[in-house]
């Protein structure tokens, strides 16, 4: 078989052709692809048969649209089972082939097999019902007749039939009473004719008296009177029958109308019952009939039914079965190697990224902590320097008594303030004060709140200069 065609079968089986490296695996999965294609055809026909059975075998046109969809769903499930490889991601650094695949569990196998059997039964059963359609129709006909008989006996038809029979019995009773009168009248007329015939014979000399003629008071005359009396009685019975018929006419008409109505209702109800019973020939009824045939005639029907069913179920489970028996082959190990290698690389990359992130975080934390420590240290150095400078200035600078007195005096000064605040240097102590002014010289600074400020000599408006 050409390589391209083999690859198509492998793709149908949902197998990666690049990982199939042995001839045995290629033949195995190519066979799986063939079984999947065969099962698609089988599932299409089975799905169409299922839709036909659900539609009471009316052969709807859309069954050939639903059938392929059902087949596609079943084939997709089989392909998912075949293409799935149970890879173990534990001990990724291990190179032992026994560590590549996960150990199967009973639930996994039973679940897959149960689903496969479920799909097989749902698709196989309609085909089996179509195979034994003749036998099933005969069984359904028998069942339907029994149902109709039961309905006619116990249902509303039985009630109406009972009433109809009662009305017929009443009519029969009326007819019997009328018929009794008419029969009695007919019998009396027959007796009158017989007596009259005897009188005629007796008048001819052939009777009992052997006398001719019919004299008054004789035997012939008696026969004639008796014949006439019977005729009168017959006429009276006819009048009674007519009177009885007149009295029965109203009841007879009512019974006839009720009988006609009941007969029509019974006919309509039987037609509806027959239609409803005949309609009970769908998938469920045919399945029950098929089961009755299998149990009642096992060696005639049941053996072949079970054999064909098992054959079709085997066809459905062939792809999944080959998957089960081929567990741990070279293809699965190769797929496991590729997947485990990719997972191992991703895991190492993830660990490196985490390590880099942790290192970067630690470095940033160190930089920040060092910066905070350096800033705190600089602030402490500045504070200590300021305190030390202030202490040195406080101990090295002496405030004159004149300034101390001046700051404690609240009155007006008799001389300028700057002359009081600023005393001449020691170098100019002997120089006299002219016009209340000192000579320009180096003044002694005044320390106030650790700030060294120099006051201007002549009040010229200069800005204070901080030392």
Automatic annotation (TrEMBL):
Quote the protein name from its UniProt record.
DUF4407 domain-containing protein
Matches recorded under InterPro entries: DUF4407
What is any Pfam family matched here?
DUF4407
Question: What ranges does the record give for the region Disordered, renumbered to this chain?
Answer: 250-271
Record carries keyword Translocase: no
Respond yes or no to whether keyword Membrane is given for this record. yes
Keywords on record: Membrane, Transmembrane, Transmembrane helix
Which branch of life, at top level? Answer: Bacteria
> Could you list the residue ranges that cross the membrane?
27-49, 61-82, 106-124, 303-325
